[in-house]
Amino acid sequence: MKMPIIGIGTWQGTKDEVLVAVDAALEAGYRHIDTAHVYKNETGIGTVLKKWFDSGKLKREEVFIVTKVNPTHLRPEHIEKSLNESLENLGLEYVDLFIIHNPVGWKYSEEGNATFENGLLAVDMTTDHVACWKVMEEMVDKGKTKSIGVSNFTLKQVKRLMENGRIKPVYNQVELHVYFQQKELVEFNKKNGLVTCAYAPIGSPGLETFNERFGSQVEGHVYLHPMEDPVVLEIAKKYGKTPAQVLLRHLVQYGVGVIPKSSNPKRVKENLEIFDFELTSEEYENMKALDKGEAGRQFQRGGRFSSTIKHPEFHIPQISST
Ligand SMILES: NC(=O)c1ccc[n+]([C@@H]2O[C@H](COP(=O)([O-])OP(=O)(O)OC[C@H]3O[C@@H](n4cnc5c(N)ncnc54)[C@H](OP(=O)(O)O)[C@@H]3O)[C@@H](O)[C@H]2O)c1
After folding, report:
1. Taking Cα atoms as reference points, which of 97, 108, 96, 92 lies closest to residue 43?
2. Whose CA is nearest to atom 27 of ligand 1?
3. What spacing in Å lies between the alpha carbon of 12 and ligand 1's midpoint?
4. Which parts of the chain sit beneath pLDDT 70?
5. Which of 35, 131, 147, 244 shows a CA-CA span of 20 to 30 A to 224?
């Protein structure tokens, strides 16, 4: 199978916003859409897809759709329900890629909503990846997804699925940007035939506001702004490109997929216009040198979400708030 290296991200896009953003993305030429059951915007995406299919401008096989198991459904008996609902919401008979959204399962909720107990996210401490993976494989057998993968998994977690599964994971979607380049994981994936897909590819500038709004702030966390980095700004100036385009171009040259999110049609189009210039090896190396390793990680679990830290499959090494 082939996956377009760039897709449109939709996290934090409301149903109404994705109606505009996904339409603009298809118009601009994107043929890869990233969503999730938990984003609650799949029906908006489904509406746009139906319009495009009905008009004859797009065939189902021309677009690559990714969705994810709702963390409240990360249990063998609930995974198929999560996918069935996603398919219904999207108006599709199959997705191209179905992934486990997060290694940590949350307490089951029929509607797929996070629940909170004593002010903290209720987690399911019994998450069993190998048992869940068997159901993921069944989803392929049943033709409900073409392929299966994971998100936010460590190498150890991926290796366990490779050793115990019948179908190997083909993809791991992780936080990845110029300040957090995940070299070991990318290397492993390249050697083992997994696609690495970068979320937050331009640094997720909306993350701080989101964390404040949802009470998931990690105390003392300093947010980084790769779009303001002098190295990035200088390269952008040279090519007459925006910092976002330079950050995306760097990742594409690094050999990873990118799924920048925008709800603004102008920025949606801008983010796709990265194939008409190329970083020289010196520029590429200068950007490679901006990697901060773990210190560059922006997605952490604090505040109301700090309960996930006690889950046996939780893995983010450094956390300042519990
Ligand atoms: N698997 C996971 O756990 C996980 C976690 C996070 C994200 N994701 C996926 O990855 C996608 C991307 O990650 P993300 O949304 O966190 O971060 P991102 O794509 O790095 O950044 C998105 C933010 O940047 C702004 N933006 C987009 N294009 C821009 C441009 N050209 N110039 C300036 N600002 C721009 C957007 O605002 P506007 O909308 O106003 O343009 C939005 O606030 C998500 O949408 C989601 O599909 C997955």
Report:
1. 92
2. 262
3. 8
4. 317-322
5. 35
